[in-house]
Amino acid sequence: MKLSATHQKFVIHFGEMGARWGMNRTVGQIYAVLFLSENPLCADDLVTALGVSRSNVSMGLKELQAWQLVRLQHQANDRRDFFSTPGDLWEIVRTLVDQRKAREIDPTLTILRELQLEDDFESSSEFAQERIQKTTEMIELLTQWYDEMRVVDSKRLEKLLKMGAAAQKVLDFKDKVTGKGGNS
Amino acid sequence: MKLSATHQKFVIHFGEMGARWGMNRTVGQIYAVLFLSENPLCADDLVTALGVSRSNVSMGLKELQAWQLVRLQHQANDRRDFFSTPGDLWEIVRTLVDQRKAREIDPTLTILRELQLEDDFESSSEFAQERIQKTTEMIELLTQWYDEMRVVDSKRLEKLLKMGAAAQKVLDFKDKVTGKGGNS
DNA sequence: CGTATATTTCAGTAATTACTGAAATTACAG
DNA sequence: CTGTAATTTCAGTAATTACTGAAATATACG
User: Fold this and answer.
1) Do the chains contact at B184 and A35, CB–CB below 8 Å?
2) Each residue of B50-106: pLDDT tens digit?
3) Alpha-carbon torsion angle A168, A169, A170, A171, nearest 10
4) Could you report the per-residue pLDDT of B153-174, keeping only the tens digit for each?
5) Which CA-bearing residue is nearest the C1' of C27?
6) Where residue A41 sits, what CATH number does that domain have?
7) A45 phi/psi in degrees, rounded to 5
8) A124 in a structural domain
9) Which residues of B touch A114 (CB under 8 A)?
10) Are residue A66 and residue A96 in the same domain, yes or no?
């Protein structure tokens, strides 16, 4: 489990990125090593690949499992735990977005809704009330959109993304026909 | 600048969220106070609202300016700096995504492209090479899509989001007509 | 200029987060 | 059961990040 120069750079970069994504450097690096490995790896493989303590790897793997970003599996006649990442990149993105949504967006939506139900909400300024309400609506719209998109299968999702601009042209056309102005 | 109970909760929540988004608690809280305020506020308003040091507010505001999330402006006969947040929520989301893209996605794309150009790239496993290449392609597709979407004005963007599922139906229809299978 | 007010910088410290090694626990083969 | 290998837990420590107060710098006005 010695890493090539390419591997090294990839791993270091994802370590830095992992730190920005609510994990930490080691977690990001563990993920990067698993991501580039064709075969599932065990904890000691990661210890030698990254040069961190066994316990650190253990905690990192636990966190990656909590994020559902790695899969635990076993091999015949071996009682060690082996880990791998999904092969479908879109599945990975979906998991990442799901998790961040669950950790950041959903709690925010909960708080915003609670605020609006509380007695003293009315005693806030009109301005603040409206901002809170509009923010709630926007987040609801975005999450609804995402909930629709997340069930689209990978091939089709790629098509939809490529359609991006084309979809807007449908609206342009509809506006023209119905006589509604193009710009708000 | 004393905050109501609703304000308090909102501010505390965005402090916690700010910490997850590469800022820190104080930065998130400063932003939350500005976001709910109808009028621009000066640094000392934020000091009293949040009970943190003047220098902390100064640093927080500087970071928010680096993120382009707040706007500095002046008032007549007052040489203090006043700050406010944009009124259009979609503009705020756009700024947030732009910034995170610039800080996370773009550098990642740069690294991935560099890796593929380097001499020893070929000496990585076929598997790793392909993963790196596919990852690059996916990120490119996503950023292209976003680049198209980010210039759509707010009203229209809402329409497009609501279209989400409808857009897929266009593909369903096309597949049916052209005889291509629905699932990949 | 000089003075008053506003803002920034920065060294020191506080608080938080990450990591390690040793001990405890779990899982299983004999 | 007993012994061995694998994993987890956790208290202590290292490293990082956030915050403060004091000093320095900048800005505007007479």
Assistant:
1) no
2) 999 999 999 999 999 999 999 999 999 999 999 999 999 999 999 999 999 999 999
3) 60
4) 898 899 888 887 677 666 666 5
5) A79
6) 1.10.10.10
7) -55, -40
8) yes
9) 9
10) no
